[in-house]
């Protein structure tokens, strides 16, 4: 159960979800037909411990009814990684040198993408999550100037961002990947308002959000919980989400504020890369929003 000021380590509550998505990136990276390579994902997952490493290696099947590690969710993780990687490549090609990754978790983009000289990547997440990542990647060198800000995103993170050298007069590329459903509705709205307020012309934002409830039958959910428990992991992601009912749809919200909004299509992204998409995955993808928006120059 969530509470207003809850906090977590990488092995508990919302922290665990960061490991889950990193494990999915590690699994994709290890495929012979991998669509991207995140060499840091496996390292980070290994650093979390045995249970997650066994899941990553396929020794524990989370959802045997569906294919591979997370079934359709694995496909979604692959699609969204490709989509957001491409978003950042386009942003830097357009001259953006200030990047903010909200809820960075175990995202290793600051290390693995090619950033032009002078690019600053801010990463914001809960203190213990950032602390874990710092330890696990202590021997690695980021490919950009990386500044971490340990803060709860329900608090006054814009002040902390400014204190760490964020310059609101420069265009920024924002990312909120795998974050919004873990925020109460009002905190999501505030976060988006803050992004708009801190965005110079030419800034852009990328995010994803599941807009409906996942149609996972209770049997699958129980099977998943049991497999995770066998690996020593306590995670029931649906219990960590705040409801999607009544939540602001960020596509309309940014459009109303004059931003130019584009939607991504996970199934198309995968098929364009030659990856087959199952019927179950199509159904799951339908409720998943992938979005970018640009604040045009004044
Ligand atoms: C599913 S993970 C996604 C991590 C990363 N963006 C990725 O896609 O790999 C969710 C992340 O959101 C962070 N998070 C959720 N709510 C937060 C909050 N209120 N303050 C700070 N971080 C938060 C968690 O700590 C976790 O790292």
List keywords for this structure.
single chain, alpha/beta, Rossmann fold, 13 helices, 7 strands, binds S-adenosylmethionine
Report how far apart the termini are: 44 Å
Query: Spans with pLDDT under 50 lasting ≥5 residues?
Result: none
- The H/E string reads HHHHEHEHEHEHEHHHEHHE
- Strand neighbour order, sheet with most strands: 3-2-1-4-5-7-6
Structural class: alpha/beta
CATH fold call: Rossmann fold
Which compounds are bound in this model? S-adenosylmethionine
Number of domains: 1
Helical stretch tally:
13
**Helical residue percent band:** 40-55%
Overall average pLDDT? 91
CATH homologous superfamily (4th level) name: Vaccinia Virus protein VP39
β-strand number: 7
* Largest beta-sheet details: 7 strands, mixed
Specify the CATH class.
Alpha Beta
Strand content: 5-15%
CATH architecture: 3-Layer(aba) Sandwich
Compose a concise summary of this entry:
This protein has 298 residues and is an alpha/beta fold. It is built from 13 helices and seven strands.
Characterise this structure.
The chain is of the alpha/beta class. It has a single domain (13-294), classed as Rossmann fold, CATH 3.40.50.150. Helix content is 43%, strand content 14%. It is built from 13 helices and seven strands. A seven-stranded mixed beta sheet has the order 3-2-1-4-5-7-6, with helices on both faces. β2, α6 and β3 (145-150) form a beta-alpha-beta unit. The N and C termini lie far apart (44 Å). S-adenosylmethionine is lined by residues 14-15, 17-18, 21, 103-107, 125-126, 129, 152-154, 177-179, 182.
